[in-house]
Design brief:
single chain, 186 residues, 2% strand
């Protein structure tokens, strides 16, 4: 027990947490990521505000990961791009209360107009691929647009809620302009 406590304090906790004294699962090890790519929570929004990222909507995206890694390097922490307890402490953000909720898959409120665009572009199918592979996902993103707005990987393989958040970012920045054929029907 003392060894585990010393390891945890040093950020070297074992990868598999032991059960707590009450029989339930123990808290994640000190070095375990609490927030990572794809997390969606108020605690992510707090990190984004602290780091002054471009988007502060609670989606832990590629832009947030880069900002976290920059912060970690500046503080001489391991530059993992994920937020663990040590990084949260350095950010002066209490994530312990938010750790369990960070990976819940939320429902994203999408404006009716954006829903109509998705139905027109892909039939509302988040796995759709069109234009010979050039347009991907529910909103038929190009890979360039997807990455510019913080997306990672293939839009057609991203969870639907991530596609909705990225589409909301695009909608707020440019309106219906990125979807010319489908926006005429609005």
């Amino acid at each position: 027990m003392v060894v585990a406590l010393l390891l945890a304090t040093a950020g070297l906790a074992p990868a598999v947490p032991a059960a707590s004294a009450s029989g339930g699962a123990a808290a994640p090890p000190v070095g375990a990521p609490l927030l990572r790519l794809g997390s969606f929570a108020d605690s992510v929004r707090a990190v984004q505000r602290r780091l002054r990222t471009r988007f502060r909507d609670g989606l832990y995206d590629a832009l947030t990961r880069r900002a976290v890694a920059r912060f970690q390097r500046a503080r001489r922490l391991p530059a993992t791009g994920t937020v663990d307890y040590r990084t949260a402490r350095a950010l002066r953000i209490d994530l312990a209360a938010h750790a369990a909720a960070a990976d819940e898959r939320p429902r994203v409120r999408v404006p009716d107009e954006l829903e109509r665009i998705a139905r027109c572009e892909s039939g509302g199918n988040p796995r759709a691929i069109g234009g010979g592979g050039r347009f991907r996902g529910k909103y038929q993103f190009t890979r360039d647009t997807w990455r510019r707005l913080g997306g990672w990987g293939d839009p057609a393989k991203a969870p639907e809620f991530v596609q909705d958040v990225i589409a909301l970012r695009l909608w707020r920045a440019e309106g219906a302009k990125p979807w010319p054929a489908c926006s005429r029907a609005l």
